[in-house]
Amino acid sequence: MLHPGRDHPRTRRSRLPAGSAALWVLAAGLPLAFLALFFVWPVATLVARGFVADGALDLGGFADVFSRPRTWRILGLTLAQAGVATALAVLLGIPGAYVLFRCRFPGRGALRAFVSVPFVLPTVVVGVAFRAVLAEGGPLGALHLDGTFAAIVAALVFFNYTVVVRTVGGLWEHLDPRAEQAARALGASPVRAFVEVTLPALGPAIASAASLVFLFCSTAFGTVLVLGGLRYGTIETEIWVQTTQFLDLRAASVLSVVQLVVVAGALTLAARARRRQERALHLTATAGAAHPLRLGRGHGVDTAAAAVTALVLVGLALPLVTLVVRSLRTPTGWGFGNYVALGTTGGGAGGGSALSVTVWDAALTSLRTATDATVIALVVGGLVALVVSRRPRARTARRTVSVLDALFMLPLGVSAVTVGFGFLLTLDRPLGLPVDLRTSGLLVPIAQAVVAVPLVVRTVLPVLRAIDPRLREAAATLGAGPGRVLRAVDLPIAARALGLAVGFAFAVSLGEFGATSFLARPDRPTLPVVVYRLIGRPGEQNYGMALAASVLLALLTAGIMALAERLRGSVRGGEL
């Protein structure tokens, strides 16, 4: 009697792949078509322009570009800025992770939220905020650090500090404290117990955080361009210079390949380090509980970590507070004159206008563009996460899923400037269609969606992978088809990550500057483009407007993230 009952579900599951094959092909095919058309093709076309001459392969561009001292200086600056910023972010972030995730004290939740603010700020805003701090008349103007290597590193640490805190702290929060307690009971000092027990367990998280920070630092564009200009340029800014000022596509192509190699190498090394540490983590990772923060007592570890974290929090708050305060300073005194001027086009040389539209018009354009980009990113990224979350039994299918996952992470390691310029080269008549997408209003949202899709995938994927496969099997056993299983099992659970995915996609789109600086039409600039234009124009009025516009952009981004977190909380608190 039981034997037929066991065979029935197995028989149904053997028939499901054939019936749902078209659904899964469509779910994987649409994102792949999007990636091929709007990422692989533009990037490959730009790279090919540098390596193909008269229809033949010509690799002389590498010798030409690497024979220039400028190239080696740019490469060295990129590695130095990214390396120093990554090291500092990790060293400062580990104490922050301990205090904010391993200790318990009043206001911990608010501080966790605060350290996340810099990461979601547009890079142009970060650059403007640090200039307000370091420029003459700013709180740290006496240090004369404006436009220096140290200013760029500080801004990169400011932007990426939360990556380390949240990545390492999220794991540290769940470590079983008994292993470290046992080492202490055997006579180990607090420092030795941390170094020999806790630190190896945190190895995978530290490696992941370091690789992400290095990726973000080595591909930084807006922050470096605002603070360092061409003097402290990186590979990312040099690609922009070569394409916009020198029209040297060969040099831009070589630098794009170099950038991809640098990022891929860093991610590969991090992945190997993470895999070596995961075995130790498996032996010690269990749920742990936070302990009360103890200051000035015992071994002093809590006091030292709290002191470092407090200094960092002051450092995080200083640029933001300074940006707001400086935006209220006008030539005639304190007031909202700079914000009132946002309704104008600024002052240019000879009494002309600095902008083609008002800042408020640019803000509306940014909101509309970011909305379109978020919708595109959610559809494409959601489908990718759905497909990649499957755990097929066949080895070939598993490898295919892994390759698909890696493919959609590529936009994080390729210059947004390269993507934007590639759009201009390829999308005049895509696939022979009688339409010029370069003049379409969809081009900027598509470019921003290309950047946002990896973040949507990384936000939704862990939730989908956490679903017990037996839930899907039980639904299929009860007669639910593939579509019904998705609606009843996957989608309600994936909705828990929807708010955060929407927030990240919208924030990234709202602040995207690299590709948008190429693609935005003069009569439809976005807020980051307008801010950069105002900074580049002389005049106290233009600088004041740039500060006020940066505050506006920061408030819009923070508001979107707050709404996203609220949506996330309401979903968690509901029936889902």
UniProtKB/TrEMBL annotation:
One of the GO biological process terms: transmembrane transport
Q: Which residues form a coiled coil?
A: none
| Domain ABC transmembrane type-1: start-end pairs | 75-268, 363-564
Gene Ontology CC terms: plasma membrane
Note the superkingdom of the native organism: Bacteria
The membrane spanning regions, by residue number, are 21-41, 74-101, 113-135, 147-168, 212-232, 252-271, 304-325, 370-389, 401-425, 445-464, 497-520, 543-564
Q: Which InterPro entries match?
A: MetI-like (IPR000515), MetI-like_sf (IPR035906)
Subcellular location, in the record's words? Cell inner membrane; Cell membrane
Q: How does the protein's chain sit in the membrane according to the entry? A: Multi-pass membrane protein
**Keyword Repeat annotated:** no
User: Which keywords appear in this protein's UniProt record, sorted alphabetically?
Assistant: Cell inner membrane, Cell membrane, Membrane, Transmembrane, Transmembrane helix, Transport
Indicate yes or no for the key word Ribonucleoprotein.
no
Instruction: Write out the similarity annotation.
Output: Belongs to the binding-protein-dependent transport system permease family.
What is the name of the protein in this document?
A: Iron ABC transporter permease
What species was this sequence derived from?
Cellulomonas cellasea DSM 20118
- Top-down, what is the taxonomic lineage of the species of origin? Bacteria, Bacillati, Actinomycetota, Actinomycetes, Micrococcales
